[in-house]
Amino acid sequence: MIAGRAFSRNSRRRWLFNIIELAILLAAFLASFASPAEALPSFARQTGQPCGTCHTDFPFLTPFGRRFKLLGYTVGGGMFRTTPFAGFPGANGAEADKLRRYLKAVDSGASDNKDYVPPISMMMIAGYTHTQAPLAPPTDPYKPNDNVILSPFSGFWGGAVTDHIGAFAQVTYNAPPAGGFPDPFGHTWTWDNTDVRYAREVNLGAMGAILGITANNNPSVQDVWNTTPAWAFPQAASTIGNSGPSAKTVIEGAFSAHVVGVGAYAYLNDLLYLEAAAYRTLDFAAQNALGVDPFGAAGLIDAAAPYWRAALEPHWGNHSLMVGTFGMMTSIHNWIDPTFAIGSTDTFAQTDKFTDIGVDSQYQYQGENYWITLRGSYIREFQRLDSTFGMGGSSNPTDVLNSLRLLASFAYGADNRIVLTGQYFNAWGTPDALLNPNLVPDSNGWIVEVAYIPFSASKAPGWPWANARIGLNYTFYNKFNGTSVGASDNNTLFLHLWLAM
Description:
This protein is mainly beta and 501 residues long. 12% of the residues lie in helices and 41% in strands. It has 6 helices and 20 strands.
């Protein structure tokens, strides 16, 4: 919760000094690129390409970045051997060859004479957070406002394992929340987004296709468009400021890292994408062992939760357009003791059932020295609250929740790229006096961001595949958790340095 509204003149002066100090820190980090180092981002090293080839604004993908992911992270072309096993040249087929030609790869395969370097990389975000009103106590180990911290810090394994198998796996440190963890199972280190793929190109009659299998731990993290929840803007956000509105659809990260799922996908004729998957919650002990607080999710998924994705992506010249749908059905056994106050890890026998149906679209245009990207997504969630209503936790046996995001982004330049992004967000739903603190779950507002990426088309001096992103974003609320009264108290400014190395 955010409390209070007014700042003294000294507080505003201290806020300005903190921004200046962080700017000096950012400059010092950029200057450090001149020193030689060993660590290299694994995908750039594998393909021999700078980040701007596959990203308009990392981690957001270009058309060829999407195909690299569809091919299972296996396309090579760099100066190092792609896989740990001699004799594996990397992905082969028409799509892989087309991607290599576009990338102007050094080599179409991975020679046994090349050195193998494990596909390990890391990233970190150092950020300054200022909220419109100070954090409500207790705030330890932080100040009530104007905090500078390093969070998150992640290590990655990302790249090819064989010609047809590749992986993206992330382990992350997040600083503890203000006031400490709400239960004994909070962790600073956790497994994070993970996607292991098998992919190969085939001919179905006269039609070419990429067929694949994905095993992952976050519904929609496997998706190649940045309209689905796992890759929603902004990817760089404060970990100690306002955590956002309380009402979110289940598919919007409610079970991220709490589940494992397996799915199959097909990308047909360079046009149509189809995928079906199913997810199951890890048991309590497994979540805790992987650094996930089981009470961070509403409960345990009953049996398996089906997930689907379909998208049509025509592309012509420098234009690409995607129109799609995605969704998930979950049946959840809620925790009996979600704060562990009585020491129980049991769940209720009854379940709450959620059906999330989403539609989304993305348009991209690649100009001579710029990218224009437009994105939109809408999710409608149907809630059947048998467990919650039966225990007196909701006023209605059924509710509906809606989530809308509309985004426009302009990325100008190759090196020294400037990215301007604006997003409108809106959540609204059924009035429910017991479920929502202010009767309705409605929240809406804007996020605006300006970012600077020094090395998009070339390699950083002394540290060839490193990159950095300096960003300043501001989140503004018109309405927060059902009311406009005090909504602006939750407005958040976040200045950050994002390093990938």
